[in-house]
Structures
1.
Amino acid sequence: MSRGLAHTIVVAVFAALIAWAFSRVNYAWNWAGVWEYRQKFLTGFGVTVGLSLAALVASTLIGMLAAMLLGSKHVLLEAVGRVYVELIRGTPLLVQLLIGFYVVASAVGLDNRYVVGVLVLALFSGAYMAEIFRGGLAAIPQTQRDSARAIGLTPWQSFRLVILPQAVRLVLPAVAGQFVSLIKDSSLLSVIAVSEFTLAAQEVNSFTYSTLESYLPLAAGYLLLTLPLSAVSRLLERRYRYET
Amino acid sequence: MNLDIQYLVQRFGTTTVLDGLELSTGDVRSLVLVGPSGGGKSTLLRILAGLDLPVSGRVAFDGEPLPRDETSLRGYRRTVGTVFQAYNLFPHLTAMQNLLLPLMHVQGMSETAARARVREPLERFQLADQAHKRPAELSGGQKQRIAIMRALVVQPRRLFLDEPTSALDPEMTAEVLEMIGELKDSGTQFVLVTHEMGFARRVADLVAFVGEGRVVAHGPPGEIIDRCTVPRVRGFFERILP
């Protein structure tokens, strides 16, 4: 059986189960009411895409910086990295958003909720990225660094030609997973009234009282973003494998 | 090469691994270090290869002392070649790319010139048709031979080999030792750490027994391996030789 066929069968069985579950619920479907608000959904979707992209890039950079701090030989630098990672990973994103926007941002006079939202999201995801990068770097055998030094490469050359290519291959699956999480976590920005996709669904629901018809498109919309991401990640993993 | 080591001390944390090691080889082409695990052979080799700085002591090849700062040490490393027990090659590159890397990025050669340089050794050691493969597709013996080749293509003054066959099965061990033997015959200078005593007898101009952080005995291979009177050395060889 080909992989494509197997995937299709599993999805079909799953869809059939869901359809059966829904058919058992005595629910008066009101798709027409929700359809009227399609522009709201589309706009929200666009905002989510934009926020996610910005946070993706920022969190990758923050994660790299934090990973360097974590690996630093300077006690103070390592402490900054470690406190950041533990604090952010140990507290809920919800709390970070609320404190970030209503306390910190107000204190420094930053009132653009979109900018604050992206920053908090990036800092949140960056902490997880930092651990992913640190783990990837640690997984490279010490002999690789020794071989690079033995050849006479400078530290920067060693990193660029030997360490980084291997680290990227090692962390790719985890980073892709983190990206997928980030896209879904962006839904939490609705609590500081950022008009993204989830808030749009919540608002449509409050206008139409058609809950399932508001939230099912939401799920579909996020799948539309996360599935291609997973597919690209698997493609890259296959392309960059050491074995051929 | 004329190696002169004076009171070499190396510590890792609180452990002293080299305890005032001294050795004067005279003019030899090949030096083989033997001895028990943890005795300091690899630590010594790493210092000789310019990878680690000792706590104190003086090392000089042909009268030239080894540099004591990292930047100069890097310059020294570019003039010598080092091969480790395993994981020498960079797995994300093909064998050819591994060979070209030091030529292009350290010596600044163009790709054309670099490819021309590696063609002859690849043919000589019958690895030309493996060059396009990644290390994962090569056998252990092939990987080690490519690693040795990578150390050679920069035309180093001398080679340092740290147990190059310890991770290989007997057949692959033989093919790697054959290559090293050929290098010895064609005049390459090297310092080799090995447990292969038969091979040590064949290629060593001088054997040094390193134990407990010191050179316990040194001399021509037959004298050290077969006829040494020092009890520590005698006991070691009696236990490991068939």
2.
Amino acid sequence: MSYEPKIVGFLCNWCSYTGADLAGTSRIQYPANIRIIRVMCSARIDPTFVVDALAQGADGVLICGCHPGDCHYSEGNYKAMRRFPLLKKLLKSYGVEDERVRQTWVSASEGQRFADVVTDMTERVRALGPSRIHATLLTDRLER
Amino acid sequence: MQNSRIGVYICNCGSNIAHIVDAEAVKESAAALPDVVIARSYRYMCSNPGQEMIIQDIRELGLNRIVVSACSPRMHERTFRNACKTGGLNPYLCEMANIREQCSWVHADKLAATEKAIALTKGAVNRVRYQEPLDSLTAEMCASTLVLGGGIAGLTAALELALAGHPVYLVEKTDRLGGNLARVDLTAPYLDSARDLLTERITHLRDNSNISVMLSSHLKNLSGFVGNYCAIVETNNGHNPPEEKTIHVGNVIVATGYKEFDASRITHYGYGKLPNVITSFEFEQMLRTGRVQTKSGQLPQYVAIIHCVGSRSKEFHGYCSRVCCMTALKYAHEIKSALPDSYVSDVYIDMHAFGKGCEDFYKKSSEVKTLFLMYGKNERPVIRKADPSDDCEMLIEVDEKLSGERIEIPADLVILMVGMEARPDSAEVARLVNISADKDGWFIESHPKLDPVATTTDGIYIAGTCVAPKDIPDTVAQARAAAGRILAKIAKGKIEIDGVFAEINEDRCSGCRMCNDLCPYSAIEFDVVKKRSHVIPAACKACGACVAACPSSAIKGRHFTDQQIYAQIGGVLA
């Protein structure tokens, strides 16, 4: 069987999770590699969730929230947005390829966009091949 | 932690799930997971027999955790939580895995979809182990209300609440009540006097001892949460030094109204340069004094009314201000009654006459011989000074759409129907009471259709033209609706607070106060004595921004704890 990457998606309840539901009710097809975890707001996504997902075997992590200006909690997505570059910097120092972790915005009405994002991300992660970072991250975590 | 006894229920959703996902395989895989006492697959879990199955298993097998792999939790989480409750289990001990919207409906590969459904179910089983029973809290509801704005909306809301016997603080920025309506003469379409409408309200209000009117005052700070707000109101009448008063209220109604568009922003109308180009509010003033005349005191023979000044335009405001069309028709009536020999031209884009009685009013206006001229949205008329040989002061050039001709209209007086815009301090007010404003500065309702006077902050209501342009009947309806919502809450006496909120472990809190500023609801308070922060559960909306940000990991996001999410990550990746 060909290599199937595992991707964990952290989606905010109000926009992106609802957008993913809309992809479902509209029967828009996308690859089955993504495993979605619901949080109330993208601001709840602790950077350690991403690191943990990579340590536990994810080949990619997708973070989705409401579009800027549209957050259910006024500006949680801005907080998530500001946190992200720091996380990317950390992941880079571990040798995690840039395309494995992605943050983007999907509104409740963007079922098609959600499917497109997942399709695109799955292809990119598939092209990168299996993540080799699990072991390193796991050891680091145990040492802590 | 008590030993978990988990029941897992795989819904087939008729064939919606089962035609792609092998529900039996998901069931078998779940049954093999640690702590899973029972795993079942059923045609419709949300049906009565489906729910009954869960309820019975809770009772007979002593289950203390439930996982339902079915549709989106946005669809049926409440259903299964209620089933748990009926079975005697705390509703927060139920978790759903979304194997329909986010699995069977979006994947065609049966093998991959089944594998994913197994993973999602495992994630939910892992997570539910760490879920905790949560109870909702209750808090007292203070029966006093703060009303911001002394226009027709604020006056009406205040009266409604006061007549029901509850204290109201009516805060008005200027030194008089009445708001924008106090600047108006007659009202469309029935031509009753604005003064009469207001006098009725204000007299009743003055007679009611429940209402404290605070003029020349504004809200300086608002803290607390629904049922228990603490407002600081500053009064500054210019004579005495500013005075601050602290008041305790349960709810707030924001009815701060609108501001008219500044006509001088449209340069080619010559407002501010041509003396007899005036705004609709200046014309109202003329009508109120009872003399329609030009700057030099002459009676105008030709009066032109130009619609959509600042409204429905790309450069200024894209929206329609809703009331100007009918106000313009009202002017046609009032001018014709004051100066029967005058000629009135009404220069419009589209005539919006959608309110009750408005279409009839439009018809009547045509009968009083108003000349209607239609212009294109992007071909605004141009006003210029007439030649001395003309018998009028100004000429308006307009590409008339219905005739397709360029027409020159004579005018001695031009009335610009200035639209409504959000007040310049709307962002400041929104910040003070913790609500949102849209790109135009109008306050945003909780739901535009189903919850139009509530906001996303509990206990803060909005009414009237601070929400969007609207006429008097709609404004009054909103004001009464806001008051009605508050009365219902006061009648209940206590408020129920959802069990999902953030909690600060004071032993771990370092008192850095980072969370204080992060919270969009000002729900985190700092205890200066203890030097620790704490969450006000009633104000917390459980977004979790503080939880992720706390450098000491002292904040727990109830029902979305780190432990629960780590466990779920492990499950979906297994």
